[in-house]
Amino acid sequence: MSVRFIYYTTSQASVLLPIIAGLFYYTKLNKPFKVLFWFFVLSVLFEVQAKICGILYNNNMPGLHLFTFIEMFAFSTVYYFHFSKSKFLTSLILLNAISFSLVAISDAVYFNGIFAPNNISRTYSSISLTVFALIYFYHLFVKELQFYSWQYPMFWLSTGVLIYFGLNLLYFMLLNYLISNATFTGQISSYTHAAINIIANCLFAQSFRCHKNFIMK
């Protein structure tokens, strides 16, 4: 068993961290975080599907297209409900969801195809979620808080979003080029992505743990 195999398997298995934390505090989660919890549960099935398709067909891209679609809507749901008091932001998130759907379908059908990496839709979703996280932090730091910022579930969730989607933005954007023209750089980027994935899942797990401080409705 190679070090590389252990490293990638550890990264993939790190999705269990938010699942375990979410399961432990499930009764205290509000509706959008329950949606997020089930997204992470679904992520395990996508990891298994990716492994099987990679071994049998040497291509797991169709699953990635669908996963990106579900991922975008799961995180968007959390931000939509968090900003529910702002008609402008909720309308923006809804319009962005429609726009993303069109981009994702076009990416799968016309641009890259369903059997190639969906760099267009992943780039779009990464930029969108990074912007949502930045808007959250702006609102967080300009208003008076009842608790310390790190006691809020959304603080850790948005930190994880910034780290995962923000740091991986160029990797997602250039993935097709790296695969075809820069294999070594692509491998290094893949190792980096795996490390970032572990860190982000730790932060997402902490966002579930923080619900112990609140009685959510």
Give a brief outline of the structure.
With 217 residues, the chain is mainly alpha-helical. It has nine helices and no strands. The protein has helices spanning 3-13, 16-24, 31-57, 61-82, 87-111, 119-142, 153-167, 169-181, 183-209.
Tell me what the structure shows:
With 217 residues, the protein is an all-alpha fold. The chain has one domain (3-213). Helices cover 80% and strands 0% of the residues. It contains nine helices and no strands. Helix 2 packs antiparallel against helix 3 (31-57), helix 3 (31-57) runs antiparallel to helix 4 (61-82) and helix 5 (87-111) packs antiparallel against helix 6. The chain is globular. The mean pLDDT is 92.
Helix tally equals 9
How many beta-strand elements? 0
Poorly predicted runs = none
Q: From the alpha-carbon coordinates, what is the Rg to the nearest angstrom?
A: 18 Å
Distance between the termini: 47 Å
Oligomer: single chain
Strand content: under 5%
> How many structurally independent domains?
1
Helix content: over 70%
Keywords:
217 residues, mainly alpha, 9 helices
Layout: helices, strands, pairs:
Layout: H1 3-13, H2 16-24, H3 31-57, H4 61-82, H5 87-111, H6 119-142, H7 153-167, H8 169-181, H9 183-209
Helix pairs in contact: 1-9, 2-3, 2-9, 3-4, 4-5, 4-6, 5-6, 6-7, 6-8, 7-9, 8-9
